[in-house]
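Throughout our pipeline, every protein is held as a single compact record rather than as scattered files. The remainder of this section carries one protein's record, kept here as part of the documentation.

===
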Amino acid sequence: MVLKRTLATIQVDLDGLWTNLSYYGHDVSISPDILFETAVPRYLELFREFGIKATFFVIGRDTADPLKRELLKRIYDEEHELANHTYSHPFGLRKCSLEQKKKEILEGEKALLMITGRKPVGFKAPGYDIDTEVLQILHGSGYRYDSSYISTFVYPIIMRLNTWFKGGVLRTHGPRWHWFLKKNKPYVVASNRRGKLLEIPCTVMPLLRIPIHATFIVKLGFFYFKIAHSLVRLLKIPLNYEFHAADLADEIHDPRLGHLIGIPLEKRLQLFRRMLQELTKHHTFVTSAEFALRLRN
């Protein structure tokens, strides 16, 4: 029996070492970067193995580093998409001024333009921190899609627990509690005669609204993934599956990044191969730009 495969997209957020450390208040250089530099080649190898075209969300500041720039060119040369993840990855984008928001988006665009020769058509806010003002900027700038929303109540809980138990800074950015009521499938967030801006949210487990992207699967296992994916297929939800650079990077031993210390690389590789084998049985993966184009037509 030949299974009918549905359209889906995979997104990889290239949040490197400096980005993760800055979350905890540490100011470090953009290089060397064990997360970015070791993860990108592995993602490219995996996606070649499974015939996947993916979208990588790039922080503009990273393009200043020669090694990272070369890796980004490799991504683009292998026909994956490079999309805008702001220029400096500010935690709390929606609290920035209008001018700051415009600058983060525009400078991120310029950085990617130097790599691809093309203006990006997709955007994702750092930490799922989005508001109507940012969406209006994107729509007015001709973006095809945004992927900043995640319809879950889990992240606000995690952020509060992190503050209580790890002594971190009280964070007020990121997903809001009521976002779990938002749609768990692509939808139009802005439209006029010039075109539409599509929201492609990070897919969560249907009904329970719990995150199912790779960072959670590493902790919760393949059985959890299998249940979530079965529900996504049953309810015919267009899948947007998310990875992060840290998910496939070399093992981290920095005590400042305790949330990244855990599963050995070989076990993560085995898990992701098993996941991608399951996903590609049921879905055809295209870049998010292509995904948005087909859904809008």
Summary: The CA atoms of residues 102 and 137 lie 7 Å apart. Residues 6-296 form a domain with the TIM Barrel fold (CATH 3.20.20.370). The mean pLDDT is 92. DSSP finds ten helices and nine strands in the chain.
